[in-house]
Amino acid sequence: MELFFQQFLNGLTVGGVYSLVALGLTLVYGILHVPNFAHGAFYMAGAFVAYYLMAVLGMNYWVAMAGAAAAVAVLAMLAERLVFHPLRNAPELHDMIAAIGILLFLEAGAQALFGADFHRMPTPYGQIVQVFGLTAPLQRLLIIGAAFGLMVLLHLFLNHTVLGSTIVAMAQNRDGAALVGIDATRVTLLVFAISGALAAVAAVLYAPINLVYPSMGNLVITKAFVIIILGGMGSFPGAIVGGLIIGMAESFGGFYFSTDYKDIIAFVLLVVILSFRPHGLFVAKGAR
Amino acid sequence: MQVLQGRAGWIVLALLAIAFPLAAQNNYLVSVATQAFIMAIAALGLNLITGYTGQFNLAHGAFMAVGAYAVGILTVDHQVPYWIAFVLAGMVTAVLGFFVGILSLRLKGHYFSIFTLCVSYIMFLLIEKWESLTHGTVGIMGIPAPTGIGPLQFGTPLSQYYLVLAFLALGIWVMARIVRSLLGRSFMAVRNSDELAEALGVNLMRTKTLSFVLSVTYAGIAGALYAGQVRFLGPDLASEAVTFDLVMFVLVGGIGTLLGPLVGTALVTFLTQSLQFLQDYRMVVFGPMLILLIIFLPDGIVGTWLKHRARRAHAARAQASPHGARNQAERHA
Known about the structure:
The complex is a heterodimer of chains A (288) and B (333). By secondary structure, chain A is mainly alpha-helical. Chain A is built from 11 helices and 2 strands; from the N terminus they run H-H-H-H-E-E-H-H-H-H-H-H-H. In chain A, helix 1 (2-32) runs parallel beside helix 5, helix 1 crosses helix 6 (162-172) and helix 1 packs across helix 9 (216-231). A two-stranded antiparallel sheet of chain B has the order 1-2. Chain B starts with 5 loop residues before the first helix and ends with a helix.
């Protein structure tokens, strides 16, 4: 039972992080219909900014997280303005390749600035705590709390504020949104900023129990793609449910089968599911 | 420019390639060129499925790794002669491509690309983790060079160069035959529109699968040649970085053109060599270059040139017959 709880906790932790990354990805997809391959690089950039703020400038964990979120939000908006905006009328292949260009640039940039080595991010929450008579690392509980808290906040923002509603409106029907006077350019920028900030926060939450290195985003982003396909591209609840499915599958699969192959589980799951249901498990409301 | 068109152009290119080692006088440059030719073979294949058939395959580099590993495993662990391993490598990638193709090609657009990206990751992780078969992260060492055929020996960099050049020439010739045939036309019909192609009587699934299998066979053969030339393999060959490199080659030259992948590979390899001092950081320069290229020169070098030529020819024709020009003007009005 104790071991089962541990795996459940791990699944919730990893699933929460995946969901945050997938949410950013699915938001951008819902608005632009571009699979943003550079999203993993945003995730990595967030981790490095926070690492720099903490290890070099000696900042507090939460300040560093806010700093990373702000920095990556700006980075994402720059990418939108400089790369995706000029390509808005190009074939979809071109967007994908441009996103790969951003990915290559950011990854090599991080390597040039910080080297290819692995870095350990310091955290003030290294303790082990007792929950209901079971032991759990505090950082994991923190990840779970922060990730799901953020999801609730995002949900409230999208459904109960005017600004949030404009995003949903644009994701559902671009032309209709334009007709009622929604400024597509501004909404797109906002979505990129949110998406970047979510990726950065996810990275800063997860980095203390993982490591920080230039290619850290690759595996996470591919899994995030698996998640949003599972959940339906552009679907918001789909990204959360998909994230939890993959998180749990990895955690229990890694435990009961083999840790060596735990990273493959997500992809095998996707291949199997798509073989039977070519449009994913859930049909998205927002996306076309 | 006239010299560089049609059959004459290809002969000039071939002569240049044959003369290159004489001008280079340097084994290092010769082996760099050999590797560029190997990548060009793989890029030709990627261009078939992505450029001509319009399906953005992100697993191409992984298929190249499959071909390379097939040769590595067969020659080193099972002492199979190189050329038999070579043929088997081509067959293994083709069969694997068939199965991946029938699964992935049911998906459209982004779904297909992301699915193949996942396939590529599965292959990478399998190569890295399946130690009993692939030697894991250690990689495969001591792969033999291609054995001689009759009087021809392939032990030296120079002979390897000509061997790979011969395969590249064969690859180009076969590709030219494919894209100029009815089959090639049906590939392009699929690229333009699934529905249009179906309305024309093209069997969608069969055409896409055939294009995919042919495409990854090019990758497999390139991988097999790579194993024989570099003679060392690591799991990095299956990482998406290789696929992204191939995408870049195809794009710089001009996607959906026969010459494009060759020009792209040659040019990018040349640039990479001149940016050697940047080493791993060359992507800091290449990433933005790729973006600028896709924004300002979306048809690549060859594609832009072909469009320019088509426009000029059109203008010349309009000049020759004023009647046609008037019709044209009316249509544009």
